[in-house]
Amino acid sequence: MRGRRLFLWALGLLGALILWRLASQRSPVTPAEETEQVRRFYDRIAPRYDSWVQQFERVILEDGRRWAAAQARGETLEIGIGTGRNLPYYPAEVRLTGIDVSPAMLELARERARQLNRPVELRAGDAQALDFPDASFDTVVSTLSLCTIPDPAQAVREAARVLRPGGRLILLEHVRSPLLPIRVIQRLLEPITVRLEHDHLLREPLEDVGAAGLMVEQLERSRLGLVERLVARKPA
């Protein structure tokens, strides 16, 4: 019995190593090509997305979505709105616009908004090239979207561009842990998560926020440093 368990353990480890090796050998793609891959992936998984992330969010994010949406004021843009999981938590007076690269996810967000009787303008769009004039919004919200956007630094720059002076960027993201053992595990897993789910585990939005000229007002880390809540303001 013990020999069989060792054999199965070794077989599982070998399979994981093979998968990691294959995932590490991705052919280079341009940001535009990767964006299209992300769109196709989320179009495909849209019908099961909510059930897919529900348990993860309950354990890892806790009340993070409620926290992020509650920070919104005035004209608000949510990038990567997905199926609209934040919609129940926005203050009633917020005038909300949501974009997503996936039309299939947006259809589910429209249905959720209808059920909630929540006014929201939803449109297909790329967070890396926002189709809005400068200084259009008082708040920009992103929850669990920068981990899949091919160029997160460009997305943050675009968010800063469309914010009005004094406007705020609200981020809830899973990020690179400051704890070395956790970070090593993230580094080992990332080739697999990127290959299978376009999910980057080692990103650090705080660096992109600073580079975009935004001033950090609130920064909280939880869950061994894996989850980050960040509020940053555009200088007036």
Key words describing this protein structure:
Rossmann fold, single chain, 236 residues, alpha/beta
In short:
The chain is of the alpha/beta class. The protein has helices spanning 2-24, 31-61, 64-70, 103-116, 152-162, 180-197, 205-211, and strands at residues 75-79, 95-100, 121-124, 137-143, 163-174, 215-222, 227-233.
Give the topology:
Blueprint: H1 2-24, H2 31-61, H3 64-70, E1 75-79, E2 95-100, H4 103-116, E3 121-124, E4 137-143, H5 152-162, E5 163-174, H6 180-197, H7 205-211, E6 215-222, E7 227-233
Parallel strand pairs: 1-2, 1-4, 2-3, 4-5
Antiparallel strand pairs: 5-7, 6-7
Overview of the molecule:
This protein has 236 residues and is of the alpha/beta class. It has helices at 2-24, 31-61, 64-70, 103-116, 152-162, 180-197, 205-211; strands at 75-79, 95-100, 121-124, 137-143, 163-174, 215-222, 227-233. It has a single domain (29-233), classed as 3-Layer(aba) Sandwich (Rossmann fold). It is built from seven helices and seven strands, in the order αααββαββαβααββ. Helix 2 crosses helix 4 (103-116) and helix 5 (152-162) packs across helix 7 (205-211). The radius of gyration is 19 Å and the shape is globular. The termini are far apart. Residues 6-23 have low confidence and may be disordered.
